[in-house]
Design a protein that fits this description.
437 residues, mainly alpha, two-stranded antiparallel sheet, 21 helices, binds nitromethyldethia coenzyme A, binds D-malate, Citrate_synthase_sf, Citrate_synthase_AS
Length: 437
């Protein structure tokens, strides 16, 4: 069977041809207008980036190289004893556009485990952080420090041809993805379980098998399977989301994959983006505390209005592109529905009840263009149910996942020779001048 590198060598030339053709034959074809609203409205709706691995449809949700989430759940290989697709098979799909075999997936798991240990100086660095430093800050700093061993940076310093950029970027990307579980688990141990032993990376486990084990949940197969699904699902969400866009922008300067992804993590750490999953749980727990055990739909409705009337957003609802319930939310809900202990969990029940009420309240409120839940509305609840209750940590898990998509695009950006990103900005006066012309 073909290795990942062999497969990449095969799939890159046709894509390079496709890009060349697009440039030569359609370089001047118009695909949309730029309105003043786009410029002052966070570029919402502007078609302005190339991103190979996934495309987001407002109604249907994400497709990874054309495959929907249910398609991926059907065809992407699981862990040897599991059922859920795993990040390794998603990574293979994102990188190559092909569905890997079970053997190829296993080989990638083995490679990641082989490369999974942290350099000693990064362990020491992370151990030196105060426990009060937010886990996302620690993750971003740890990832940036890993650039000490960047093959891309070392090769660039020596002087390499442009056509070789992608191979070094791929090696860095694999090394970074391999090391994320040990880094993220070390942060968890240091912040929440100081003084306890941290398991090592086991060479025969898949990426999330190791991550779960290092977090101290290796015995909980349901949670481990949930994490596999969660991390595979959150891997990519086309290019315009804040973390992916940041990785792309920073990477376009030929900054190495570690620095590019570190920057992306600090975008993910904002409450309108990845931090929303910590905010959801905080908000749902506050609701539970205030309303008690027997919560009616009317109670939830009143609580939602209280949140909105105090000028806050309802975390986990709304989206920059989606105009329907997020299929990632649906997939995680289905995971819960298929397990009796999760089905009867009070926190998961509360998320479900909120889902029954919130869209109508948000419609009545009349501001958000999308009154439906995004993935963050539910992603933390299963973790909470199984005792991983430290919700300031949740975005770190998202951060372990989003590396799949961001790093895939970096490899493709280098393979396709995409240029430095540098859009044109305008002042309000300059904009007014154009309008008057
Ligand atoms: N609750 C209350 N108001 C909202 C919400 C919400 N959940 N979502 C949007 N709005 C408001 C928004 O603040 C804006 O108000 P204003 O005109 O006063 O500035 C108005 O509705 C229009 O916003 P939209 O165009 O619908 O949303 P936009 O594309 O600007 O932002 C989000 C998208 C996701 C930032 C926004 O919906 C939000 O803040 N949601 C809550 C936070 C969240 O769940 N983020 C997670 C996103 C997913 N992720 O994983 O990253
Ligand atoms: C994501 O997964 O990045 C979020 O849903 C936000 C987005 O797509 O804009």
């Amino acid at each position: 069977t073909k290795s990942l590198r062999e497969t990449m060598k095969e799939v890159i030339p046709p894509k390079q041809e496709q890009l060349k053709k697009l440039k030569v034959e359609h370089g001047q074809t118009v695909v949309g207008d730029v309105k003043v609203d786009n410029i002052i409205g966070g570029m919402r709706g502007l078609k302005a980036m190339l991103w190979e691995a996934s495309v987001l449809d407002p109604i249907e949700g994400i497709r990874f190289h054309g495959l929907s989430i249910p398609d991926c759940q059907k065809v992407l290989p699981a862990a040897p004893a599991g059922k859920e697709m795993i990040p390794e098979s998603m990574l293979w799909l994102l990188l190559t556009g092909q569905v890997p075999t079970a053997e190829q997936t296993k080989e990638l798991s083995r490679e990641l485990a082989e490369k999974g240990d942290l350099p000693k100086f990064v362990e020491d660095l992370v151990d030196s952080f105060p426990r009060s430093l937010h886990p996302m800050t620690q993750l971003g700093m740890g990832v940036a420090a890993l650039n000490h061993d960047s093959q891309f940076q070392a090769a660039y310093e020596k002087g390499i041809k442009k056509s070789e950029y992608w191979t070094h970027t791929l090696e860095d990307s694999i090394n970074l993805i391999a090391r994320l579980p040990a880094l993220a688990a070390r942060i968890y141990r240091n912040v929440y379980k100081p003084g306890t032993e941290l398991a090592g990376v086991q060479k025969d486990l898949d990426l999330v098998g190791n991550y779960s084990n290092m977090l101290g949940y290796g015995h909980n197969e349901t949670l481990t399977e949930y994490l596999r699904l969660y991390i595979a699902l959150h891997g990519d969400h086309e290019g315009g989301n804040a973390s992916a866009h940041t990785a792309h922008l920073v990477g376009s300067t030929l900054s190495d994959p570690y620095l590019s992804y570190s920057a992306a993590l600090f975008a993910l750490a904002g409450p309108l983006h990845g931090l929303a999953n910590q905010e959801v749980l905080r908000w749902q727990l506050a609701m539970q505390k205030e309303l008690g055990d027997k919560i009616s739909q009317e109670d939830i409705k009143a609580y939602l209005w209280k949140t909105l009337n105090s000028g806050q957003v309802v975390p986990g609802y709304g989206h920059g592109v989606l105009r329907n319930p997020d299929p990632r939310f649906i997939a995680l809900q289905e995971f819960c529905d298929s397990r009796s202990d999760l089905k009867s969990s009070p926190i998961i029940d509360l998320v479900n009840k909120t889902f029954q009420v919130a869209p109508n309240v948000l419609k009545e409120h009349g501001k958000t263009k999308n009154p439906y839940p995004n993935v963050d509305a539910t992603s933390g609840c299963v973790l909470y149910h199984y005792g991983l209750t430290e919700f300031k940590y949740y975005t770190v898990i998202f951060g372990v996942s989003r590396a799949l998509g961001c790093l895939t695009q970096l490899v493709w950006a280098r393979a396709l020779g995409l240029p430095l990103e540098r859009p044109k900005s305008l002042s309000m006066d300059a904009l007014t001048k154009i309008i008057k012309q």
